[in-house]
Amino acid sequence: xxxxxxxxxxxxxxxxxxxxxxxxxxxLALDDRGEVRLRRIGGELLLTAKSGHGEMRxxxxxxxxxxxxxxxxxxxxxxxxxxxxxxxxLGEGLRAEIDVYDGPLEGLRTAEVEFNSPEEADSFTPPPWxxxxxxxxxxxxxxxxxxxxxxGKREDVEMETQAASGPSRSFRLLADESxxxxxxxxxxxxxxxxxxxxxxxxxTGADGDALAEAIHSVRKDxxxxxxxxxxxxDELGEKTFKRENGALRDxxxxxxxxRDAEVKVATLDTLAGGDVPRAATSLWRExxxxxxxxxxxxxxxxxxxxxxxxxxxxxxxxxxxxxxDGWKLLSPGLDTAYRDxxxxxxxxxxxxxxxxxHELRKRGKDLWYQLRLLRDAWRxxxxxxxxxxxxxxxxxxxxHDLAVLCIDLVGRGEVDPxxxxxxxxxxxxxxxxxxxxxxxxxxxxxxxxxxxxxxxIRAYWRAWRR
Length: 466
Fold this sequence. Notes:
The protein is of the alpha+beta class and about 475 residues long.
């Protein structure tokens, strides 16, 4: 099959959207001529071979058995991308597929438009919300993004740009700063970014998808900041930790309802189709979207309060008494994150409860964010390790989201009883599959005893600092 496509950066997210899907893909083989990749879109598992670059490319795609997929997926470690794909109608039979990237590529948004002929591609006039054209720019191909990261190492460019105007906001410890200064800077940077996002959407009067997306980004920034606080909890002291963590937790809670509502829509989109036609769930989806929009509108009133709380914590960061430094400052928090996660993983048992899975996910998130802070100690090892932990927490997150959707499904008159039962069965089967995958990943992540894990990371840290 030959694809005729044009690719663009996305300057701003459009309001119109027909659906969305979460995509994970990892690369088994790469060279200048093409690629072989694995892709997971909801419950669909695919093996794809592509060749060529630019507007016209050849592609062959086949379904793959779950066991084969799980056997091959570990071979893609260090060569993966994760994104949410939004489908936006453009008129005249065209649509844009907008990819909003997560993980190390967070902040990147690209769009592809597929055409029936080269002539149609040439005559296409991009809408105003599309930015710079990327067609043929191999730096933005998914395979290059998976292996090389953002073009020009955008995070490093951001650091250089901010060096002239203020401290870097990069969520990682830098070689030319003390551990204490780095933790303060990284946490304050996330908080300042979160406050700016909220002020921007409040001042511009954004609503619907734009506000929901901003809130999602802010919540992620707050999670990073709280993981940073946990890393230095012992040195902060319990009183200071509880004050700052509680303020950020409460700020996040004022913004949580719309995110939960948005997750239901996205989870249903990945589940519907196949055994349950989308038409059977369309009314339910409309109600979920209406719930989300109503909640988003209500949450906007709480934004000023959240901004004030976030800015207050950021302002106090310079006053935190972090007398210890270096590895002595960092090791207790990292030990706690790994040890607690290992214990939560061991506690899953055969019949894991909703609470058990949720607790393990939270502890895994702490470890992921803390490894991201430390990743420059030995990036070729720690960055892929952090990515593996992220994959692990995503599996647990998907398990949680399916449970929330299943609760919402009960009593939904918009779905007939037959399809409701089919959906419930699909949800339970997908949860069982996710939990099995998570168990395999968890065995690898928590294979070391805490002392051995800590000793290994300490060796990386000391070699880097030396």
